[in-house]
Specification:
By secondary structure, the chain is α+β, with helices and mostly antiparallel strands. It has 2 domains: about 50 residues, no CATH class; about 100 residues, no CATH class. A 5-stranded antiparallel β-sheet has the order 6-7-5-9-8, with helices on one face. A hairpin with a 5-residue loop joins strand 8 and strand 9. The C terminus is likely disordered. Pfam families: DUF4283 (PF14111), zf-CCHC_4 (PF14392).
Length: about 200
């Protein structure tokens, strides 16, 4: 992971057992950047990071949340706003940020939100939004830097053959409604051709 993180100073690793590791950063700036720029994947699997609480044993830490950048596609022009982005982000989990342009606008090919998600729940493929006119439109989600996930139950942490959430009939079905379309192939894609600003909360 240290090579992937490309930290300016050394990072020490302690094996705590049960697939838990403690990373000790020599520089706080490196630690904050790693926590801020996730999610991180190792061997196509999601790496969950959380600042440790000295009052809780590592084995009892609730490691089930991760932050993802999510692209929201097919949004009508009237819905290309920070408010809409936050509303949609909060329906997926906790909205952390909404990407904005140089003038604070959100007009572009898609809305882009950063969401803290419970990774034990199925990935959402989209939702319906209500416009000021009262009209409802369906929007679609695409996840940046999404690790391997199950096309049957839409959960991360396993693939279809190892899924315990659906029966063998569903596993053997040739037509599956979910798939790689939930993943952004090029995670450098942005709503604008120029780099937008990302206001801090």
């Amino acid at each position: 992971m240290m090579k992937i993180w490309n930290t300016s100073r050394e990072v020490r690793e302690k094996d705590l057992g049960e697939n838990l590791f403690l990373f000790i950063f020599a520089k706080e700036l490196d630690r904050n950047r790693v926590l801020r720029n996730g999610p991180w994947n190792f061997d196509k699997a999601l790496v969950l990071l959380e600042e440790p609480n000295g009052n809780i044993a590592p084995s009892r830490m609730l490691l089930k949340f991760a932050e993802f950048w999510v692209q929201i596609h097919n949004v009508p022009l009237l819905g290309m706003t920070v408010q809409t982005g936050r509303q949609i982000g909060n329906c997926m989990g906790e909205c952390i940020d909404v990407t904005q342009g140089q003038e604070g606008e959100c007009m572009g090919r898609f809305l882009r939100v950063r969401v803290k998600m419970d990774i034990t729940k199925p990935l959402k493929w989209g939702t319906k939004i209500s416009l000021p006119s009262g009209q409802q439109e369906r929007v679609d989600f695409r996840y940046e830097r999404l690790p391997d996930f199950c096309y049957n139950c839409r959960r991360m942490g396993h693939i279809m053959g190892a899924c315990t959430f659906v029966d063998d009939v569903v596993k053997s079905a040739k037509d599956n409604p979910y798939g790689s379309f939930l993943r952004v192939i090029h995670d450098s894609a942005k709503p604008w051709s120029t780099s937008p600003k990302r206001p801090s909360n």
